[in-house]
Amino acid sequence: MVELLAPAGNPEALEAAIAEGADAVYLGLKSFNARMRSSNFAWNQFEATVDVLHKRNKKIYVTVNTVVTEDEMERLYRFLTYLNNVGPDGIIVQDLGLIQMAHKHFPKLKLHASTQLNIASAKAANAMSRWGVSRTVLARELSLEEIRAVHANTSCELEVFVHGALCVSESGLCLFSSYLGGKSANRGMCTQACRRLYTAHEPEGDREGYFFSPADLQLIEYIPDLIQAGVASFKIEGRMKSAEYVGTVVSAYRYVIDNWETDKKGAVETGKRILANDFARKKTGYRFKSTHAEEVLNPDQAGGTGIYLGVIDGIKKGLVQEVPFKDGTRAVHYVQLKDGHYTPEKGDSVRIHKKDDSGRESWKIQDIMESKSGAWLQLPADSGKEDSVYLLQTRAMTKRYPRLLPASLEKYRRQPNDEALPMLTLEAGFPTLGDTNKAALTTSTTAPSVKKSLAKKPADIFPEGLYVQVSSIADLHTILTDKPVRVIINLNEDTYPALVGQQSNQQQLNQQQVKPLPFSKREIFVSLDPFLPQEQEPILAEQLPQLTAQGYTQFIVNNPAHISMLRNKKNFLVAGPYLYTFNCWAVSWLQENGICAYIPPAESSQSNIETVFVPELRPQVLLPIFSYSVLFRMRFTLPKNYNFLYFSDKQGEAFRAFSTPSASFVLPDKPFSIIDRYHALQNHQFSRFLLDFSHTAIERRAYRFILQSLRSGTPLPDSVRFNWKEGFYDPQRVEELKQLGQKSAEERGTKRSGGRAKQPRKNRRF
């Protein structure tokens, strides 16, 4: 029997999901999940939920689907110990280090590969299955035919998103929010920057639009096909949505699942009628309907959810009061909206979007005051001017659901304890080609140790020095002006023919001969694209043996499927930046899968990189010091009316958008650069450095200027550091800094006033 899986962002949504017929729910706790901005569950609420649902023969899955930095690994170990004791039916994971830790220490925990793991093919699913992953949440960019093909070639259970918000980026590959301020999508802190209003700079002039704000997914008409395709679980997105929304969507999909066999057309039509009350964005079937971007993108559609009610224009002063809220009270005030065309009523559910996109909250209106100037709505007191308000549900649609959790949670007292993180020993040095390392584990609580591998690789395979990555054959010739020790070339539609000595289609049209490559094969690393959909898997499966037959044995791998295709075949494999090595346990997993060297993730910090890759491991690290990081990637070409290369945000930050035959990319206008730290990093025992010009055309003059700046230790103008210095945004650290600043201000005020404390000025927002 197929499973209907619903989101439970809070106890009310949990009640709605179960009452309307969900077979299982997924939820997050207070850390390590990809919806850190939702309310999530407290420890006692979670333990009670597991107890209650299991008595009803329902299942519960916990989202632990973020990447984890090295300094968080002990806390993660304690968290997994807690989950192992409480006993949910599975945990949804992204981090390779978490998979390694669970595999070694918590074999009872069932692992589900998150969509953030970017599993889009059977070989990728099988790669995870070998490590105890029993279910894969497939990437949302797949078609029905591809899902059928994945099921036919894997024994891993498949879970598919069928309804809710879409990410415009290919799953797990978005760096946009992280680039703009350290709030990483891979850390559950996404600010949905793609949905904002941008200015496109077109030849005809500037125009504004929500150019990258996708429609919402709705696959209700394809439920019968997906059941027949072998999908085990249908997943509804929405842990930040209201209970009313969750109940409505669950009831619609429940009806179709239960009735399609007796009346397919009637069941689907009934389901669609139920969903007519889903006040969200325009709906799309995505690749189930079309491969065109117009099926997903609508630049005239605002990034908000629901019916737009307006922005807060006025706030009644002196009317802040406390009202009952969940287990306590909440401060509220009265606000007036402008620019909207619909006035809500008492009992309607709305969503408030902070003007700086720092948060979104669902709220049920308890009171409305009428005046000559119009209606004043009672909203939370932390809502402010210019915040946007959207209607999610009218009072007429609201249902009261039976309470699930007991009134008293006194008996549910489990919490993570202070267990020590087991010691992890990593291998240093290069394995013999085709072999795999066996990382040794002990029970010591000290920092990870490293032991020397007996097998060493000759220095000429992975020599010290500068490496340059390019996306075209032409750029290989450009960089000959200052030849690097090795070159990395991206495998794509244009480079593959040249690598195997064939003519490209364009060369055939122009009757041009294939020029010899300006680098020998031992000097070339071939980089594989991080997104590998099922449709492309057979093509890559043919290309890789042809490349190895031609003498290419050095590859940058960015997807678990790549490891399946290349390991144990005497290849030198480098884990690319999309096989996220944010912790030593991820490095251990990669070592056991035959990885010889590592390119750290683009959004990692110097501190975390140096903690993960201790000095003994740094000869195996290829450290990026220059790149135009891909902020997000889309599995379609941009619409023809997107007649622009550059666009900018309200702060004037510029970005580039362009398409290839199979995908589209958004890059920053300013590159990431730490080339001025080149000599200092050598003193830190890094010896291999990467200049990444992927998806850009290199000009000789610019290339020479970059190398001159590198050698002279001069900072590159108009560049950024990304997260190199500051690391990820940390709300706890920000709060500590605020409190420290407030305390300092109070102390200064006391000194100035001769001992009388003054009111501190409002702290600057981070």
Describe it for me?
Strand 18 and strand 19 form a beta hairpin. A 9-stranded mixed β-sheet has the order 29-28-27-26-25-24-36-30-35. The chain is 25% helix and 22% strand. Helix 1 (11-19) packs parallel to helix 9 and helix 5 (122-129) crosses helix 15. The longest helix has 22 residues, at 731-752. With 766 residues, it is of the alpha/beta class. 47% of the residues are buried. Mean pLDDT is 90; it is low at 436-446 and 756-766. It has 20 helices and 36 strands.
Brief characterization of the structure:
With 766 residues, the protein is an alpha/beta fold.
Helix tally equals 20
Q: First CA to last CA: what distance?
A: 49 Å
Low-confidence stretches: 436-446, 756-766
Structural class, from secondary structure content? alpha/beta
- The average pLDDT value, as a whole number, equals 90
Shape: globular
**Radius of gyration from the CA trace?**
27 Å
Report strand order across the widest sheet.
Answer: 29-28-27-26-25-24-36-30-35
